[in-house]
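Bench notes, afternoon.
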Amino acid sequence: MDAVTIARRVTTARCRHTLRGYVVSLSIGIVGLPNVGKSTLFTALTKKGGLAANYPFATIDPNVGIVNVPDDRLQKLADIVNPGRIVPATVEFVDIAGLVKGANEGEGLGNQFLANIRETDAICEVVRYFKDPNVMREVGRMGDFVDPAADADTIMTELILADLQTLEKQLPKLEKEAKRDHELMPKLEVAKRLTAWLNEGNRAATLEMTPEERAAAKGLFLLTMKPILYVANVDEDMLGQELEPIDGVTPIAICAKVEAELSELDPEEAAEYLETLGLERPGLEVLAQAAYKLLGLQSFFTAGEMEVKAWTVRQGATAPQAAGVIHSDFERGFIKAEVISYDDYVELGGEAGARAAGRLRMEGKDYVMADGDVVHFRFNV
């Protein structure tokens, strides 16, 4: 195909990619004990209005919400190209009903909820730090007493026990299959190591493994292999305070009630409210960005008259893989990527300035995308 035809096809693709493209599907399950403020947090996070009630299992079917990832770079790119719209990257949050002790054995519809967690890419656990004598901690138990570490341990124990059940079911089958197919031996061996590790009360993800073992472990579909972050649902007067780590992870302090109020205000009123609290930005923005990093994600941008858009790729993705996020044809027929770093794009006033300064690079199939790259893809199908 001649260069003119290729150029025409690339130009057409740039105009239509938002209609025909697809988005990387990545989700984070919001979990916790009943009445820790998960649904209140989810409602504020997504402005979707999930059911919030003061009794266990108020949320039986998981609510799903798509949340924008705040990125100040989008507006700076838009100031240069004046697009019709700005499209941020997104993360999917799934509000999963409260777990209780014994969930791994089916307590409180536990099996159903554990299955919902299994379908997500990572876990966001909400832990209660706020005090409220009217909140039920467990079925039949009210009180103002809070014990974040113990609550987090309860959830982790249920996840570990669920993983042990998973391995118990898989091991006999793996042993038989490994006798016939020796390529499955690494998966069998890591399953045995993980069983012993979990029996000691440890998360699967904390076991020291080689890259090959970790790849084999992914095929076991263990809950405690998932990345995890903790959200401390605090009282308003605790905002800004440093919190003790949970399982080696420092919780993100958020007051779900405050975030719910912020979600109902217009931007100016919300900014004033944040100022009175001594906060620079809402806790939910911090959470969305933390979730993005937790999943090992980064953004690249496309910028034109139609739109400025952030696209999501995993860290370490190559140029063809990034092209495939926009459209499978882009990856299949990948030729080159025209790449400008975000800093160069802004400093030099856009594509024309970057090209004139020699800062527009032509990258091939082996190029590893950098966070913030502004890209046009050349392809041929």
